[in-house]
Every structure is written in C-alpha cells, then in structure tokens.
Predict the 3D structure of the following.
Amino acid sequence: METLMDASKIMDHLPHRYPFLLVDRIVEIEPNKTIRALKNVTINEPFFQGHFPGLPVMPGVLIIEAMAQAGGVLAASGLPEDKRDQMVYYFMGIDKVKFRKPVVPGDQLMIEVELLKIRSKAVKMAGTAKVDGKIVAEAQMMASIGEK
C-alpha cells in the first residue's frame, strides 16, 4: 500500500501533534471526495494506561477523532495551498455513531471518509473505521471552517 502522506506531511494539513495526532498515513485521497488513512494502534499509546489497565481498549471517541482528523486532511486538500495554513476545522456535531467491535493494541485502523457536503463555513462527512476489513466504528461528522 503506497503512502501518499506520512505523519510529517499530515501535520502540514492539521494542527494536531503528538500525542493527539491520530492518523499515521494517508494512502489514498481524491480531493473534495474521499480519503483513506491508517492508524496503527500500539500498546504504547498513552490512553491505554487508564483505558483499561489489564484490558487495553482504544476509546471510541478517539476512533471518531481519528476519522475527523482524516476528514480534516480531506477538507483541506480541496483548498489552494496558500489558504490551508489560514484555515482551521472545529467539530460541530456527530450523528449516526455506531461502535461494532473493540479496537485493541496490534490492530490497524483503516479509516475511510467521504465528503457529503461542503459550504463556505461548514463541511459534512461520513466515516468508517475498519480492522481487517470489518467495520469497527462509523459516524457522520460536521465541522465548521474558520480562519486561524
């Protein structure tokens, strides 16, 4: 699987940094349409210390956040390069969220996000997260677009 963007390139599109950057690679992108991203889930993630000791499970809200971050890269990909640095995306809402299976250390999340609507000040996206080809989470997400 080819890497189109590694973590350093992703950080050119998002304000997130360790330990909150939850997307490791972009493997496919069609600007203003779809994106596929990877998140390698490792035991050294800081949230596993408390969620849960002896039974590490990735928090569902962080799976959704990983989808939102991939969606942020997708939304930014449709902007001219000189505008990307000036824009920021803020979560507005989440609908139709479903968690189907726990995500544990050693899993690799394949995140797929589709842009449903984009307006000058808002974006709506649908996302899924899969492990071994099986959906583990899905959601519709909305974000507002603002200037930094």
